[in-house]
């Protein structure tokens, strides 16, 4: 077995990282038959109370429900609000839809909430003032998550549920909660059936972490924290639309489209004989107005209709840039992500950036400001087209 990774602070990182990456929302694997002691609940709440609290106020309260008659009432209430999940399960069953599993699991909890040996509700003295400032919810959330982690470390599990807040008056009546208290989260707590859980698929930090400016990404961590060509500096522009991915795809897969919105991109044509798809090429025409114009060959490296369109500029193995559209369902519409990464060579920016290490960051960031403006204009243009706010030839 490999030696444990012990951090400078003395923690076993394999253990800690395993806990942090495998504390899942557990529903179907809750063991409703195994009792849960008060002692373990107290231990987990004591640990949860070590979480930060706004103003260092001791205002959090925890309500532990064991009485089956009360759990049944809460179960009924949860079922009322949770019908969206049972209905959605009907719709998604057997479709392979990305949300099929979570909806099926959530619907299972809707039907079985009252069977959990314990329901634990985290609440706080106070009413949220809707000021937008950090407030009550923010004080409960970190401790509620610590509670979950403490459960998992002891072989128990839960799901972080908020749906009972949709019926708050009845919830308060069932539990005798006085005015002036806000309930935040309800945990069905039980031992888990088995203790192996896996990390969930999530976007990597490099895609969702921005440095210094909104949308400025780094493909890999910099060794000294500075902005360098070698780390793959990128730009992301995202937008939500009301349209489904099937309606957005024809627009983003039209290689000429960004010319309508970008100040640098003049248009593109598929290379003769190229059918849109992986391996196809197109030629893009660009200009920096009043300075120079250039043409580049673009190689399609990913093409998944209604999801992903990626192309690499100049040389697919050593691209001047990697450009990409990603589409995903978001609520009833979709989220469009337009991203690019500046390559290590085969472009105009890198020679300039590498001329003087003192200026590397400034050159890269100036270039990214222009790219970001054009990419933002493009995603807004697409959104307006699909949501019907602009003329098709805008
Ligand atoms: C703010 C918040 C509210 C949630 N509300 C519910 C809920 O009402 N019912 C439920 O079954 N799960 C709820 N969840 C759990 C999520 O559905 C769950 O975290 C998500 O499916 C991802 O699963 P994972 O945490 O195992 O990766 C909630 C999670 C959060 C963070």
CATH topology of the largest domain: Alpha-D-Glucose-1,6-Bisphosphate, Chain A, domain 4
Overall helicity: 25-40%
Give the distance, in angstroms, between the N- and C-terminal Cα atoms: 62 Å
Which structural category do the helix and sheet elements fall into? Answer: alpha+beta
Number of distinct helices: 11
* Largest sheet, spatial ordering of strands: 6-7-13-12-11-10-9-8
The number of distinct structural domains comes to 2
- Write out the distinct hetero groups bound to the structure: flavin mononucleotide
Q: What does the overall shape look like?
A: elongated
CATH superfamily of the largest domain: START domain
Q: Uncertain segments of ≥5 residues (pLDDT<50)? A: none
Indicate the proportion of strand residues. 15-25%
In this structure, how is the largest beta sheet organized? 8 strands, antiparallel
Q: Given this structure, which CATH class of the largest domain is correct?
A: Alpha Beta
Please characterize this protein's 3D structure:
Helix 3 packs antiparallel against helix 7 (168-175). The chain has two domains: 13-192, NADH Oxidase, CATH 3.40.109.10; 205-386, START domain (Alpha-D-Glucose-1,6-Bisphosphate, Chain A, domain 4, 2-Layer Sandwich), CATH 3.30.530. The protein has helices at 13-22, 38-48, 68-81, 83-92, 100-112, 136-153, 168-175, 205-208, 245-252, 349-355, 360-386, and strands spanning 30-31, 60-65, 118-125, 156-157, 181-192, 216-218, 233-241, 265-270, 281-288, 292-304, 308-313, 321-330, 333-342. The longest helix has 27 residues, at 360-386. It is elongated. Strands 6-7-13-12-11-10-9-8 form an eight-stranded antiparallel beta sheet. It has eleven helices and 13 strands. The model has no long low-confidence stretch (mean pLDDT 93). 33% of the residues lie in helices and 24% in strands. The protein is α+β, with helices and mostly antiparallel strands. The site of flavin mononucleotide has 11 residues, from helix 5. Flavin mononucleotide is lined by residues 24-25, 102, 106, 109, 159-163, 200.
């Amino acid at each position: 077995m490999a030696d444990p990774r012990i951090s400078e602070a003395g923690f076993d990182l394999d253990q800690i990282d395993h806990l942090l990456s495998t504390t899942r929302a557990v529903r179907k694997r809750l063991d409703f038959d195994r009792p849960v002691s008060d002692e373990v609940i107290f231990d987990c709440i004591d640990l949860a109370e070590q979480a930060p609290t706004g103003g260092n106020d001791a205002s959090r309260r925890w309500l532990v429900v064991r009485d089956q008659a009360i759990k049944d009432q809460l179960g009924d209430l949860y079922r009322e609000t949770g019908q969206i999940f049972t209905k959605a399960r009907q719709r998604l069953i057997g479709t392979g839809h990305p949300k099929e599993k979570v909806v099926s699991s959530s619907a299972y909890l809707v039907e079985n909430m009252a069977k959990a040996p314990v329901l634990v509700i985290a609440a706080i003295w106070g009413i949220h003032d809707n000021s937008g400032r950090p407030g009550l919810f923010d004080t409960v959330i970190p401790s509620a998550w610590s509670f979950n982690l403490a459960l998992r470390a002891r072989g128990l599990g839960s799901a972080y549920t908020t749906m009972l807040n949709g019926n708050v008056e009845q919830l308060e009546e069932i539990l005798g909660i006085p005015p002036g208290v806000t309930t935040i989260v309800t945990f069905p707590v039980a031992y888990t059936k088995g203790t192996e859980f896996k990390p969930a698929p999530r976007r990597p930090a490099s895609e969702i972490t921005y440095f210094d400016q909104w949308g400025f990404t780094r493909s890999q961590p910099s060794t000294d924290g500075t902005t360098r060509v070698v780390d793959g500096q990128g730009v992301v522009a995202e937008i939500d639309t009301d349209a489904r991915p099937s309606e957005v795809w024809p627009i983003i897969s039209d290689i000429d489209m960004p010319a309508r919105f970008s100040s640098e991109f003049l248009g593109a044509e598929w290379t003769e004989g190229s059918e849109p798809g992986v391996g196809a090429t197109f030629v893009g025409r660009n200009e920096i107005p009043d300075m120079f114009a250039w043409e580049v060959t673009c190689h399609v490296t990913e093409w998944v209709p209604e999801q992903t369109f990626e192309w690499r500029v100049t040389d697919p193995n050593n691209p001047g840039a990697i450009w990409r559209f990603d589409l995903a369902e978001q609520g009833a519409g979709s989220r469009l992500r337009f991203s690019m990464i500046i390559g290590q060579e085969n472009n105009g920016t890198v020679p300039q950036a590498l001329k003087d290490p003192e200026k590397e960051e400034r050159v890269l960031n100036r270039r990214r400001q222009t790219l970001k403006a054009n990419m933002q204009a493009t995603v807004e243009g697409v959104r307006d087209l699909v949501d019907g706010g602009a003329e098709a030839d805008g």
